[in-house]
Design a protein that fits this description.
- The protein folds into two domains: 103 residues, no CATH class; 242 residues, Alpha-Beta Complex (Spore Coat Polysaccharide Biosynthesis Protein SpsA, Chain A), CATH 3.90.550.
- The protein contains 17 helices and nine strands.
- Helix 2 packs across helix 5 and helix 12 crosses helix 16.
- It has 370 residues and is of the alpha/beta class.
- The longest helix has 15 residues.
Amino acid sequence: MIASVRRRLAGLLGFLWPAPEASRAIRAIHESGQFDRAYYRASNPQLRWIFRLAPIRHYVTIGEGRGLCPAPWFSPVAFRRGHAAGSGSAFLDYLRYGKPPPAAQADDRPDLSGWINARACAPYAVVLHLYYPELWPEIRRDLDAAGIAFDLFVSLSGAAAAPMGVSEDIQAAYPDARIAKVPNRGRDMLPFVLAVGSGALAPYLAIAKIHGKISPHLQDGGRWRRQLISGLLPPDCAERLEAFVALPQAQLWTADGALLRGKAGWGANRPRGGEIYDRALPETLAFPAGGMFWAKPAAISRLASLGLGLSDFETEAGFVDGTTAHTIERLIGILALEGGGSIVETGELKVRALEAQVLMPLARRRQARC
C-alpha cells in the first residue's frame, strides 16, 4: 500500500516537473505532430483530469512506461522488443530514426529452401509463423488435438530463427514439417505471401494460417490468440473442414468474433491499400481480424496477383496499424469476396457440418499420398 502510494506520488511529481530529458522528449513529440491526443484520451478513460489536459506529458513521464500507445499504429512495448534501447522514449526513437538503427536490422535474406518443391501428402496444410519460440509447445498441443491430416509449413523469424533448438523441436514432433527462415519484417503476412508465391500451397483443399500472436499492445493478447487458434482448430475440426470445403461460395473461415465488418475496419490502412490494390477499394470491409483463418487455394492465390515482394514490407518498427501487413490482412477479405465469395465463422460451420453429411465428403476422397 505504501509502495503504491509512493509510486503514484513519484509519477505525479515527474509529470508536474519533468526531468530535462523528459522535457526534451515532450517538446520533440509535440513538434512531430504524430501524437494522437484524441486516441490517447479515448483509449485510456481511466486518466485523471490533470493528465488528460496534457496527454503528451503524461505519455512521456508515465504512460510509455506502462505500455500505453501514443497512436493506434505504434506500440512502445513491441518496438522495444525488436530494437536496441536509444533515448528514454521508444516513440521518440522511432520519430528520430524512422527505422531501426543498423545494428538492429534483421537479416533480409529469406531461406525458403524448406518450402521449395514440397510435395503435398495430406488434404490440408497449416502455415504457421513463429516469432516467439516459447509459444511452440502451446501451438503443438492445438495442432495435435485438431485430429486432422495436414502438412505443416513453418516460418521462423526473430528469436525463433536463432539456433535455440526450436527447429529441432518442431521436426521432432512433425518430422515432415517444411521450415523456412524469414527476416523480421511484415510479421506473419510476409512469410504467408512468400508461401503463396512459392506455389507450395496450391494442391491443398484448404489452408490454415495461424501464428504465435502475443499482441504486447493489448492487455490480454494471449487470450485473443487462444480465441483465434481454438476457433480454427476445434475438437471437431475434421467435420467443420469437410463442411467448409463442401460450401462452394465459402472462401475463408474465421473464428467466431474474428470477422470484422464495417467502414471503421480500414483504420490507418486505406492509403496503403490504394497503393497495393489496383481496383477501387470498397468503403465497407469484411476481413479476418488477427490474421488467422482457413482459406481455399483460390482465395489466397489472388495474393500473388498483387505482385508483392520483400521490399514491399517495412522493417519491423512496432506499429499496431498502418503497415503493409495490416493492409494485406484487410485485402485478404476483399480478395476472398471477389466473384461472389463468402466468409464463414466457426459457429456457422457447426450447422453446415450437419448439412454436409449428405454431401460428398470431399476431404475423405483424398488419401495420403506420401
